Amino acid sequence: MGQNIKMTPLQMDALKEAVSIGAGNAASALSKMAQSRVNMSVPKATIVPVSDIPKLVGREKDIKLLIRVNIIGDAPGAILITMSMASALTLSDILMERKAGQTKMLGPMDMSAIQEVGNIMTGNYLRALETFLKVPFRSSVPFIAMDSEGKVLSGVLAELGQETDHAVVIETELKEKDHEIETQFFLIPSHRSLERILEVLGVH
Amino acid sequence: MVSKRVMIVDDAIFMRKVLREILTENGYDVVGEVNRGTDVLDKFKDWKPDLVTMDIMLPGIDGIDAVREIMKVDKDARIVMISALGQDELVDEALKAGAKGFIVKPFIPSQVIDVIKKILG
Questions:
Q1: Averaged pLDDT, A20-38
Q2: pLDDT of residue B38
Q3: Nearest chain A alpha carbon to B58
Q4: Global pTM?
Q5: Contacts for B90-95 with beta carbons within 8 Å, 24 or more apart?
Q6: Which residues of A162-184 are buried (b: 16+ CB within 10 A; e: fewer)?
Q7: Chain A closest CA to B63's CA: distance in Å?
Q8: What is the rounded (10 degree) CA torsion for B118, B104, B110, B46?
Q9: Is the sign of the CA dihedral B89, A73, A118, A186 positive or negative?
Q10: Nearest CB to B86 within list A32, A126, A141
Q11: Is the minimum CB–CB distance between B20 and chain A shorter than 8 Å?
Q12: pLDDT, tens digit, 9 for 90 and up, residues B33-72
């Protein structure tokens, strides 16, 4: 634990290709939900120790929105999607067809909409990864929470850290007209699942 | 002409809003909304809808079991499953249980209406 997994440029390209396909699908899905074109930046993908995730998510004092989806079946694990409150409010502006900056607080409808985005984006990412990596992924209903001071994230990572050491991190930026949203997507496979993924990518 | 009556079953308030808007804008009468699988059968009996839209994943009992419960009391019930990408096996199971069709999220309104029209005839 605590060491990055070293991959060759070719293996990293394979992972990034899978991630790009997933990100493209997720952007298309979000475009449908928003009924407006959503563009996604080229996602950055790396494999990092789970212990590094809090540092990547950012300052603990900031409130973040956290969506967790459990992956069940043959390749268990979890997915975490994080975004700043500013991005969450912007996303809600888009989904609720409000003007930029109109959403000031996240009510039940906003949280439900964002949770649904998490559900749909997760499905799209996993489907792409499944096709590319030939590893079956099935997901549960998403859990959404506002996380101040990183407490929820710490709890989730403490639980997941018992089953795994590493995570695939995907950072990407979404743009819809004047709206910009930054999200971080963490795929946290169990030991067994990561071994399968790495085997497919040719890493042992 | 009497509007066809639709019951929406989904635990996500946002998805219920999206479906309600699509249906009412296209002339359907949303007779009620349910957010838990355990409430589906009672409400189905109370409201007697022409069609049910059923989310596959629900708290309480899941959408597939809710389909089975409805089919036991009304073998002619018309149920459309609402699923996310990557739920193909669940959709297959729901169709075997008696659902008449499915729609994958995210959907565009015309796709929803096309599927519903085909099922309602």
A1: 81
A2: 93
A3: A141
A4: 0.84
A5: B90/B56, B90/B57, B90/B63, B90/B64, B91/B56, B93/B64, B94/B54, B94/B56, B94/B63, B94/B64, B94/B67
A6: ebbbbbbbbebebebeebebbbb
A7: 13
A8: 60
A9: negative
A10: A126
A11: no
A12: 999 999 999 999 999 999 999 999 888 889 999 999 999 9
Hey, what domains does chain A have and what are their CATH numbers? 9-201 (3.40.1550.10)
**CATH number of the B14-110 domain:** 3.40.50.2300
Answer yes or no: do A139 and B86 touch at CB < 8 A.
yes
- B85–chain A Cβ distance below 8 A for any pair: yes
Chain A positions in Cβ-Cβ contact with residue B59 (cut-off 8 Å)? 141
CA distance B55 to B72: 19
Tell me the two tokens of residue B29: 């009468």
Dist CA B35 CA B85 (whole Å)? 21
- In chain B, what residues touch A123 (CB-CB under 8 Å)? 84-87
Tens of pLDDT, residues A117-140 = 888 888 888 888 888 777 778 888
Of the candidates B13, B86, B89, the beta carbon closest to that of A108 is on B13
Which residue out of B55, B57, B61, B85 would a mutagenesis test of the A interface target, given it has the greatest number of A Cβ atoms within 10 Å? B85
**Cβ(B37)–Cβ(B3) below 8 Å:** no
Q: B14 and A126 in contact by Cβ < 8 A?
A: no
Where does the pLDDT of residue A60 fall: very low under 50, low under 70, confident under 90, or very high at 90 and above?
A: low
Cβ of B84 within 8 Å of Cβ of A123? The answer is yes
Closest CA of chain B from A123, distance in Å: 5
Note the pLDDT of residue A5. Answer: 63
Domain ranges within chain B, ordered by starting residue: 14-110
